[in-house]
Amino acid sequence: MRQLYKSFHYPPVTLMLVTLVSSISAQDIQQGIQKFPLQKIVNLQNIDHDYYFSLITTEMPVPGDELTYLEKIKKNIPPKDYSSRRENTLVLNEKPAVLINFEGNKFHGHVPNDNHLAVSNEGKIISVTNSIIHFYYNDSQIHSPVSLDTFGALIQHPHGKYDPRVIYDPKRDRFIIVFLNGFTDQTSFIYVAFSESNDPLGNWHLYTLPGNPLQDTSWSDFPMIAVNNHELFLTINLLKNISGNETWKTNFKQTLIWQVDLNSGFSGDSLLAKFYDNIDFEGKRLRNICPVPHYTGASGENMFFLSNMNFSQQTDSFFLLEITGKMDNPSTKLNIHYIKADNNYGVAPSADMPFNRLLETNDARILDAVVFPDNSIRFVGNSIDFSNNKASFYHGKLSKSGNNYQIKLDIIHHPKLEFGYPNIEYTGDGSNDEGIILVNHSADSTNPGISAFFYKNGDFSEPVVVKEGQTTVTVQTGKTQRWGDYTGLQRKYNENGVVWGSGYFGKFISASQRVNGTWIAQLKSPTYLSAHESAISHPLLTYPNPFEDQVIVEFDNRYLQKYLFQIFTQDGKLVKQLREDYVKPGKARISFYMDNMPNGTYQLVISNERGEKIVRSLLKK
Predict the structure, then answer these.
(1) d(CA 571, CA 585)
(2) pLDDT tens-place string over residues 562-584
(3) Which of 16, 150, 540, 549 is the most buried (most CB within 10 A)?
């Protein structure tokens, strides 16, 4: 699996401490413990009306945005080699088995998917996408979908809600949902919801953490979560409001780590939490810090984290962080190690779709990680495949020998497919070295779909196709579509070898609707596969479908400004304020559903802070 890159030429990359194999920095940068009151108790049985409002900018970003900055980096990547005949290094004959699988969260206007998933020991599943929650029991839908707007509506923060994450705590047999609110320092909040029981349709304790905790014109973006025996760990990127000539590159402020007490959240008491800020190594801020949960789901009092040089075109640098104990332990520290891998990784090019279209791969940040039974850390993220300059992913094994850390890094190569947004889970019984990787795939002759790899004792299987794509995706204008930004994968903790996952596929609705769909699958390690087990792919047993009367409105917006979206009756009575939110410059599109509204004529009023209005008549029949 090793690769040599001497035949490829890239601009030089400056690395800190290039002569060191491993070094450590201990930091005491934690803030004091704070209390955050219980905001509301939400019961899904009491939710009987949801508009599933969606707001997106369909054009690709304007200069200065994150993706524009990344495109400048990717222009330096050499052209893809479609004739590469590199020897196949995927040597395992065993593949993961695809068992129960079905279409998950329906498309309702949002990009990207942001797939994430959690499954309880009883088989109850919460699947989240951007920005909606679905509930299943194995292959049966057990409640109508709930939008993040509606789930958090009892707390009066009217701006857009996005970037959902969900996790199951096997020790307490409970769920946690995390999502974000707002895109400015004044509107940014972090929602944290704890299920009161193991029934996701029951009560949820809803809290908010400040999205601008330093009160310095920054807002929170891209959450990642994990739990140990006592606490939830939540990492977040703080971005400054863009003003003047600032760009996305300069508006990144820092990544911080929240440490949150689990017992107070599950019991509905005031939530105890604190955060770590100013996390740097040799004066350089670490970004996109990924928590590393234990393969048992919850273990110990410490928590590991990983970070890397996610914008580099070619590097071998990684950072291992550890919070050593509970938040109320005065000796708890944050330790940071710098480690060089035995191989390079780098920013991937956009992945091909048929008909000369592309999928955005973002950067090379670590997307998921887990502590295996041998105490090594396995982790995955997007990367270029240097042998053919296509989009792929890396798999790393971080282990410790004496006082030294080491990383064995493999770049997964496939002769035809390109990959993006991997996730990894352990699948053994605690005595063996194996796991499953779920990842999105695409190619110039293959529609976007989902694949899975089996990993065992350092070797990888050929991918098994979990879901074939039905079409290219054309939700956004231009040739490049958002992909990812992450996939969902979780071990079923009381059933060896079994994981549940969710990912992205191209879904064909009509010639004019080729959208990003979600597919959910139960996968099983071949180590534990019984002779009678086989794939079960059939229509999902569904709750009554709310997605029928969809309204779609597009409009041009010249400035970054606040908009108000409202529905009125014909005689001017307010029916619903759908959203108050900032809209980026460019072509914008909103969508929502009128299924639960009485028949009649309504008016949709879109107004901005400049006093301009767009009025559309709506007929529900």
Answers:
(1) 32
(2) 999 999 999 999 999 999 998 88
(3) 150
